User: Which sequence fits this backbone?
């Protein structure tokens, strides 16, 4: 089973990164990835109906030994995304757990499991922890919805595992900076704005941001904030002050006079008390930050604080931008549930570092194909019990985008068989309907 020609045409700019045999193997694997019920290499070969075309070890070598760069592939996918982003590029940084079994798999360790953990009890699980960098954008057909299209990836190896394998240990924030630097240097004429949770808002990221990249993240409620140092020449010798007067913490800001704000974020109307100021944190006294402290009046959430390296941002802009980060959580969920992000069984170093990220890149490619052509062929299923669901392509989930790609691919395959006669349309309809049900 091959993919629809329009999807293969989307992949053609990526061919310059591979040799011709390797790119042919990649197309076979991606075709099988779309149709396979379980995303192992042999399962994808079966789904693509490619058994016998090559020895099965050739498809294993695609990830374990072939000479190609995952970063270059991600940057090439970013080149396909770039025409859809006219202004500054909004980036989302997050990490996600891929559960694994077996002690000999490269890079595995015990990591925090957000699905099993509660607010009172933190639980861990055995597997891989991936740090993901994605582009957050609105697509032409989706109205006010935001999508996160992943492009760059780093495998976080726990310190104990890194010491045992004699590997250099890098923290998750360091890996995030390691992805930001090549992206921002490759496209130095574009402005970038990264958004991450509290784990990526510390000095490891803030002090090492590229010159053309800003940051929005969480801030501790008791963070030490300072004013700019006064420019007064002292008669005595010594270096000038690096920090000005101490300013109220975000917690103290909420105890003063605040204004009320209503925002539509996370699919709901939120009413909050908001206090804002321009300050400097202790670790980066030379960089002014926009600090916003928020106390929710609805929803029962605890007070929170956020910051942006753009001091001219308004509170509404900063909070809305941080809320758009939720699209990376949706992407993690869909890549695991619909594309089998956790299912590849490779265990060697290169196979581990390459195989799972291809599922994320396939997520980006499917969404890009749907925004270019797939939305024209999308037919929403008739579900009268969902009165509030948006009709048309604007309400399509990723599962429905993937089902549309499968249906168009099956239609193209069946039409190439040259069916004729009165029952040919019924055969085609039955095939497409069956594919949608399986999807």
Assistant:
């Amino acid at each position: 089973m091959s993919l629809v020609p329009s999807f293969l045409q989307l992949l053609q700019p990526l061919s310059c990164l591979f040799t011709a045999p390797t790119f042919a193997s990649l197309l076979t694997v991606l075709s099988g990835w779309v149709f396979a019920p379980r995303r192992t290499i042999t399962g994808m070969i079966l789904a693509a109906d490619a058994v016998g075309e090559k020895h099965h070890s050739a498809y294993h070598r695609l990830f374990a030994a072939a000479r190609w760069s995952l970063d270059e592939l991600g940057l090439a996918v970013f080149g396909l995304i770039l025409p859809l982003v006219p202004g500054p590029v909004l980036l989302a940084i997050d990490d996600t757990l891929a559960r694994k079994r077996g002690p000999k798999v490269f890079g595995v360790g015990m990591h925090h499991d957000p699905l099993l953990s509660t607010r009172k009890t933190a639980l861990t699980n055995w597997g891989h922890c991936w740090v993901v960098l994605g582009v957050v954008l609105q697509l032409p057909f989706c109205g006010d919805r935001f999508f996160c299209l992943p492009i760059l990836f780093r495998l976080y190896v726990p310190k104990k595992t890194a010491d045992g394998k004699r590997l250099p240990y890098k923290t998750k924030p360091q890996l995030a900076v390691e992805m930001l630097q090549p992206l921002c240097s490759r496209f130095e004429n574009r402005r970038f704005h990264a958004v991450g949770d509290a784990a990526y808002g510390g000095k490891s990221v803030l002090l090492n941001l590229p010159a053309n990249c800003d940051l929005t993240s969480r801030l501790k409620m008791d963070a030490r904030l300072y004013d700019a140092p006064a420019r007064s020449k002292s008669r005595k010798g010594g270096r000038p002050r690096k920090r000005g007067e101490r300013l109220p913490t975000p917690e103290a800001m909420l105890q003063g006079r605040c204004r009320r704000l209503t925002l539509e974020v996370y699919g709901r109307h939120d009413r909050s008390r908001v206090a804002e100021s321009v300050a400097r944190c202790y670790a980066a006294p030379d960089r002014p930050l926009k600090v916003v402290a928020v106390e929710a009046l609805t929803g029962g959430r605890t007070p929170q604080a956020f910051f942006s390296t753009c001091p001219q941002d308004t509170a509404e802009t900063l909070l809305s931008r941080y809320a758009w980060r939720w699209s990376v959580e949706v992407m993690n969920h869909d890549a695991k549930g619909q594309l089998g992000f956790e299912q590849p069984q490779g265990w060697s170093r290169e196979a581990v570092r390459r195989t799972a990220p291809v599922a994320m890149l396939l997520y980006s490619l499917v969404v890009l194909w749907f925004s270019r052509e797939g939305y024209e062929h999308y037919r929403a299923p008739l579900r009268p019990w969902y009165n509030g669901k948006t009709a048309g392509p604007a309400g399509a989930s990723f599962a429905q985008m993937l089902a549309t790609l499968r249906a168009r691919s099956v239609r193209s395959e069946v039409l190439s068989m040259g069916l004729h006669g009165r029952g040919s349309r019924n055969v085609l309809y039955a095939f497409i309907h069956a594919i949608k049900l399986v999807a």
Notes: The chain has a mean pLDDT of 89.
